[in-house]
Amino acid sequence: MKTVSISLLSIMLGSMQAFTPIEAQNSLYTLWFDQPNTSRSVPVWGEGEIAPDEGCTFENKDWEWEHTSLPLGNGSIGANILGSIATERFTFNEKSLWRGGPNTSAGADNYWNVNKSSASVLKDIRQAFSQGNNEKAAQLTQDNFNSEVPYDPEPGKPFRFGSYTSCGEFTITTGIPENDIQHYVRSLSLDSALATVSFCNKDTAYRREYFISYPHQVMVARFTANRKGSQNLLLSYTPNPFSHGKFKREKQDVCFDGKLDNNRMRYTVRIKALPKGGKAWTDKQGRIHVEKADEVMFLIAADTDYKMNFNPDFSNPETYVGVNPAESTKQWIETASRLPFEELKQTHCQDYAALFNRSTLSLNPNWETESDRLSTPQRLARYRTGAPDYGLESLYYQFGRYLLIASSRPGNLPANLQGIWHNNVDGPWRVDYHNNINVQMNYWPACPTNLPECELPLIDFIRTLVKPGEKTAQAYFGARGWTASISSNIFGFTTPLSSKDMSWNFSPVAGPWLATHIWNYYDYTRDLDFLKDTGYELIKSSARFAVDYLWHKPDGTYTAAPSTSPEHGPIDEGATFSHAVIREILLDAIEASKVLNVDGDERKEWEEVLRHMAPYRTGRYGQLMEWSKDIDDPQDSHRHVNHLFGLHPGHTISPITTPELAQAARVVLEHRGDGATGWSMGWKLNLWARLHDGNRAYKLYGNLLKNGTNENLWDSHPPFQIDGNFGGTAGVTEMLLQSHAGFIHLLPALPDVWHEGHLTGVRARGNFTLDIYWHDNNLTQVVVHSGSGVPCRIHYKKEEITFPTETGKDYILKTTNGKLQLVHK
Ligand code: FUC
C-alpha cells in the first residue's frame, strides 16, 4: 500500500499546523485536484429564461461539473462538489425526482393506454420473411411495433415519458478572495466516501468536509478553519427551475417544499445550519447567513413523494405517490441534528467501509512512479502519453465500486445513465434506464466485486416493470409473461417509443436480458429464499415471454422474428443477439426450476425450444454472424457488439467449451476495432477477457482510461455516462477471475504487464469469496471462502482441482512448480 506523496502531505501538514491535516490517505484510494473550480455561481439553466432544450443536448454546458467535480451519494441523494473558493457550489440530486408518468395533466389513461395491438401482424411479418420479402416484413414492423409516446418532449403537450431531473443547486458564498490562495486540494477518498476541500488564504487554513450518509439519510457539510470566527457564509438553495414551491424558515433552518410543473411530483429539501461560535439566521429568500462562526455544520435532507409500486393501479394517476417528503426529511434532520459531526461521520464511514473494504486490488505494488505524486488529472494526462500507472488502473477499479455504492443502495431506484448525478432539467437520453446495454452494464461489477446488495435496486426496478410489461408482451406479441423495451422510467414504462427507427426502438429482449440478472444474483449469493420468494417468478415469466415471442418455423426451428441488432442493420428474421439473450434466459429458467424442483413439464418445453433454436453461425470472414444472412461488413466499427452477448455477459460461447464460436467472436472484435464510446470499450474489455486474451483486454482497459475518461474519472460517451465506469471495473475482475463456465477460472486473462499483485474479496458463482495472489505472472496462492458449502471446482491454466466445501470455511490453494494444490482446509 502506498501513501499519499510526501510533497502533498507536507503541504497539508506544513500549512495547517494548528489544524487537523487531511488524513494521510492511500493514493490508491484518492482522487484529487490541486486547482479550484471557478466561482461561477449560476446553475446551467441560468438565472433567467430556461433554454428551450431544457438541457437535453449532449454537450453539457457546465464543463467543470462534468470533468472536475467530485461526486458523492448515498443511493438517494447525490451531489457534485465543485470546491470553488469565493462561492462554493454543489449540484444536488434526489434519485426519484423525475418528470413524466401517469400524473401529468393528461392523466393516467394517456400514460398507460399506449401499447399498440400489433400481435396479429406477426403472422404477416413472418409470412413475408418466408417469401423472402424482407422489405414488407420491415415495413410492417416499423408501422406496428412503435407506440405514440415520443422520446422527446412535445411543445404544448404533457411530457409522458419524462426525464430524470435536477433537484437544484447550492451555493455558499464565503467572502474569501480567489486571488490569494495557497495549497489548494480538493479530494475524494474512496475508502471513506468523504470529499474535502482545503486551502490557505494568508495565514488562515480553511477546510470543508462533505459526505452523504446512508444510515442517517442526510448530506453533511462542515466548514472549519484554524482561526476562530472565520466563517462568514451565505448559503442559498436554488430549486429545480421547472417546479414551484415555497421556502419556509425557522431560526437556522430552511425548508423548500416544491412540486414539479410537469407531473406535480412533490419534493422537499431541508437545510439546517449548526454553527459553533458566531451566529446563523435565515432571510426571506430562504437563505442562511452565518456570521463569525468558528465552524458550521450544514445538514441537508431531501425526498420526494414517489413510491415504488410493483402493482400499479392503471386508473389511478397517483399510483406512484405515497411518501410525505416533508415528514421523512423532518425526521432525518431531527435525528441527525442531535448527533455531533464526528459521530455522523463515523457512522457513515463504518457503513460505507463495510461494503467498500470487501475488495482490494494491488497491481505491481513495488512499482514506484512519479504519477503517485500527481493530481488525478495530471496523472491521467501522463497515462495518456503511454506512461505506465498501475496505481491509476487500480484506482479506476475501485472508483467503479465507489460509484456503485454511491448510486445504488437498497430501498431506492437503480443507477441511471448518469448514476444519480445530473445537473440539468433534462439530459442526454433523458438520463433514463436504457435497456439495451446501459443499465445492465451498471450492474456487471455488483456481484463479482462483492457488492450484491447494491444490485437489489435493480431487482426491485425489474419488479416494477412486470405488471406493465405483461400488457406490452400481450399487446405486441400475444405473449405470456412480461417484457420491457429500449427505455424505461421510474413509472413502469415498458412500451416502445414512437420512433419508426426499429434499429433502436425495437427491443423486445430487453426484458429477458434484465431477467438474466435475477439468476445471476442468485448464482452469486445462493440465497434460496430470494429465488423462491421473488426471483423464480421473474425468471419464469420472462422465459415464457421469450418462448412465445419466438417464431416456430415450419422446419421446426425457433427464431426471433422480427428482431434487430442494436443499433444498426436490417430488421431480421433472427438476429444473433436476440437468440443469445433467449438462450440465456431459458438456461436460467431451467436451472432455477431444477434448484427449486418445480415446473418439470414446463422445463421440458424450455429444453425443447433451446434444442431447436436457430444456431450460432459463422460467416464468410469467419465471423460470428450478426444477422440471419451473411451480411456482416468487416469495415463496420459500430459500437454495439450485442451479437457477442453469448460470450459476455452470457455464457453460451467460451474458448473452453465452444472454441470455434469463440474464434468467430474474436474475428468480430478484430473487425470492430479497439476504439468507440466509453461503454463500448468497457464491453470489449470484458469480451477480450472472456476470450482469455489478457494483453488485448489490457489494451482496451488502457483505451477506456485514455480515451473515454474525464479528469474526475467519470466515463465519457461523451457525454458523461456512468456505464463505462462499471464496465471497466467489471472488466478488470473478469481479467483476474471468471466463474461463468461451471468452474472458477483463476487469472484467465492476466496481461503480461501486471507481473505481480493481488485481488482480494471478490466473489465467484456458488457464493465463494476469493483472495488471489500472483507473482512473476504466475498464481502463487488463492484463499477460497465457501459461503454456501457447495463443491468447488477451480481451474488455473491447464490445472483443475475439485473439492467439497463446508459453509463458512476457508480453503488455501498454492501452486508449486506450476501445479495447483489444496494445501489447507
Ligand atoms: C444506446 C447507445 C448509445 C448510448 C445510449 C444511452 O442507445 O447506443 O451509445 O449509450 O444507449
Automatic annotation (TrEMBL):
Residues 1-20 form the signal peptide. Residues 32-308 form the Glycosyl hydrolase family 95 N-terminal domain. Residues 341-736 form the Glycosyl hydrolase family 95 catalytic domain. Keywords: Hydrolase, Signal. GO terms for molecular function: alpha-L-fucosidase activity. GO terms for biological process: carbohydrate metabolic process. Residues 738-803 form the Alpha fucosidase A-like C-terminal domain. Pfam families: Glyco_hyd_65N_2, Glyco_hydro_95_C, Glyco_hydro_95_cat. This is Glycoside hydrolase N-terminal domain-containing protein. The lineage of its organism: Bacteria, Pseudomonadati, Bacteroidota, Bacteroidia, Bacteroidales.
